[in-house]
Design goal:
The complex is a heterodimer of chains A (about 60) and B (about 200). Chain A is mostly helical and about 60 residues long. Chain A has a domain at about 25-60. Chain A is about 90% helix and about 0% strand. Chain A is built from two helices and no strands. The longest helix of chain A has about 35 residues, at about 25-60. By secondary structure, chain B is an all-alpha fold. Chain B has one domain (about 10-199). In chain B, helix 1 (about 15-45) runs antiparallel to helix 2 and helix 1 (about 15-45) crosses helix 4. The longest helix of chain B has about 35 residues, at about 165-199. The mean pLDDT of chain B is about 90. Classes of the chains: A mainly alpha (about 60), B mainly alpha (about 200). The interface between A and B is medium-sized, with 24 and 28 residues.
């Protein structure tokens, strides 16, 4: 059981490596764009929620 | 835009230069603005300056986080590991922790004036230490994997036809403007909240 798990993780490792090492590692750049986009979007959505909350409070007042 | 495709282990990932590096430039600039407003707060006692200072630190932390995440991912597929014991990497991580402590310090004080003063004084010491940690110490280190620190060269030596430079400068300006804009949004939001509470 443990051996199969280790085997799976090793397989996942190599297939991930294969994916990112192909075509001159260009997918590394793509992944980094995705990381930046996700973090920025996460922060902006949080900011948006805070503003919405403030707007609601203002409406009630 | 043209970019070199065969720089050793970097291959085409040299393009990350336009994303990973400006993150740190933006973070340093935002922290500098925060530092200046911290000093201004200590001089004037104007709560607007304190809100400016703290908002810029928060957005700077976001950019620092993006810098760490992109750097770590880039390292995984070039150096072969997510993280190594390196002056530049550890310096950046300690720098992030210093500003996390700033955040915790602020949240632990309820009194507005005290909070402003404590965090501005903390900021006064934190920023120079941060600069030393991420720029000075890595430069002085004997060896490093990270470009432009220790015994390594910067990217300008690889950029023979200056094509990277054209994109890089524009990207840096763009990221800095984006960072400043988000930080002012955050500042305006905290200001509205503060004025609301006063009324």
């Amino acid at each position: 059981m443990l051996l199969t798990l280790i085997g799976f993780s090793a397989m996942a490792q190599t297939s991930m490596d294969d994916f990112f090492y192909q075509s001159g590692k260009i997918y590394v750049v793509v992944a980094i764009l995705v990381i930046i986009f996700c973090l920025l979007a996460f922060y902006l959505v949080r900011l948006d929620k805070k503003i919405t909350k403030l707007e609601k409070e203002q409406d009630e007042a | 835009m043209p970019a070199p495709d065969d720089i050793g282990i970097l291959a085409k990932t040299i393009r990350n230069l336009h994303f990973h590096v400006p993150m740190w430039f933006t973070m340093i600039l935002l922290l500098l603005v925060s530092y200046v407003y911290g000093i201004r707060y200590l001089n004037t006692g104007n709560p607007m300056h304190d809100s400016m200072s703290s908002s810029f630190v928060k957005v700077a932390m976001l950019f620092g986080l993006m810098g760490l995440a992109t750097g770590s991912f880039w390292a995984r597929f070039t150096w072969g590991t997510w993280w190594i014991e390196d002056a530049k990497l550890n310096g950046a991580a300690i720098g992030m922790l210093i500003y996390t402590a700033y955040y915790i310090l602020r949240n632990s004080i309820d009194d507005e004036v005290k909070r402003g003063k404590f965090s501005s004084v903390y900021n006064l010491f934190a920023f120079p230490i941060y600069i030393v940690l991420i720029i000075v110490i890595p430069r002085m280190a004997e060896t490093s994997l990270h470009p432009a620190s220790g015994d390594t060269v910067g990217f300008s030596t690889l950029d023979l036809d200056n094509n990277l430079r054209k994109v890089f400068y524009l990207a840096t300006i763009g990221w800095i403007l984006l960072g400043v804009w988000i930080a002012t949004l955050k500042h305006r939001l905290t200001e509205i909240k503060r004025i609301d509470e006063e009324i």
